[in-house]
Known about the structure:
By secondary structure, the chain is of the alpha/beta class. About 35% of the residues lie in helices and about 25% in strands. The protein is built from twelve helices and 15 strands. It has helices spanning about 5-15, 35-50, 95-110, 135-140, 145-150, 160-165, 200, 240-255, 295-315, 335-345, 360-365, 390-410; strands at about 55, 60-65, 75-80, 120-125, 185-195, 205-210, 215-225, 225-230, 260-270, 275-280, 280-290, 315-325, 330, 350-355, 370-375. The strands form three sheets. Strands 1, 2, 3, 4, 5, 6, 13, 14 and 15 form a nine-stranded mixed sheet that branches. The two termini are about 25 Å apart. About 45% of the residues are buried.
Amino acid sequence: MIKINVQRLMKHIKDLSKFGHDPNGGVTRFPFTAEEREAKQYIVHLMKQIGLEIYEDEIGNLFGKRVGTDSALPSILIGSHLDTVKNGGMFDGALGVLAGIEILQTMMEQGIQTRHSISVAAFTDEEGVRFSTGMLGSRALTGELQEEELFQYKDENGISIADAMVQCGYNPKLVHRARRCSKEFKAFLELHIEQGKVLESEQAPVGIVTGIVGVKWLKVTIRGEEGHAGTTPMAMRKDPVTVAARLIDFVEQKAQQSDGLRATVGSIRVFPGSINVIPREVELFFDIRHLSWELICQMEDDIQMFLSACCNTKGMTFTVEATHELKPVSCSPVLIEAIQTAAKRTGTKFLMLPSGAAHDAMILASLTKIGMVFVRSKDGISHSPLEWSDADDIEAAANILLHALLDIAEAEKI
């Protein structure tokens, strides 16, 4: 049975982690930086070694194509992203790109030719850390990224996406040219670390993804009345923090009652923020996720109703603003079946599971059929220098993707 060279793949993962390596541990590789450019140059080097046709689009997405025997057929796309969070790990995103290159190198070495062309993609800015908005590359590919966003979003130094692009030699006015049409692609497959503990808890090295959860971020602002902590009696207070505390408990209980629903308060800001002052205002930032968009929106409605009841009785006001939305997507049943068949053929134990994290694949779902393969994460750790996946697990997942890809590339209908 054909297998990838996992020692070579692990070396490439380690080598790539040098670009953006932080002396204090981990990898920091933000979009439109020197570190990202060096990483892309390394990827180009690997692509050239195996004779791929290389192309970089107007948002910085990097592609390497292995041309099939029938150029009239749509291409199959595989890959992930190269950017990281601050002090992130070496596997998140990078594994998908490098595994894709390794798979095509294995095909080349084995003399395997496919009817459909296969392209490896390294998408720009999946994480969204630098500019507080992500999926730039995949959204540009699907035509969802608007030019005005490039000028609207800025990093902590006040540099807009557009400014950063210009500094790296890109023209933000041409980002629309990155858009591709659905007839160009047969499917998109993404290999990624799980970033959670489910596979490890079930002692499964590989996961086959059924779908990717939707995400809604809510900014909740509760406004009360500022007062002196010592002179204002408890019964006379309009303290927004007390309402916020009740809201957090309410959301926690609602989430526990709904199978698979995730609700997190990731940030709380209190104003004015003095220990001896009753706050006048509190801001809470909720992250709500589920495979059902209906359940996500129901949670938003429940929050509105809860706050209305609490604030009306206390003479306070509130607002609930949705700051970010990604609707859930399902992976293609046909691609899932192909991945399952490949897993059984290789004798690998696998688990069917949804992805609780967002990925470029969920954006590509509007363009073509998608499938995802997860690799077990040690202790479920990700976005950390401690992020790790064993070579045996990586080899198993990459071999599954390789054999699924061979079947998909020859199938008449997908």
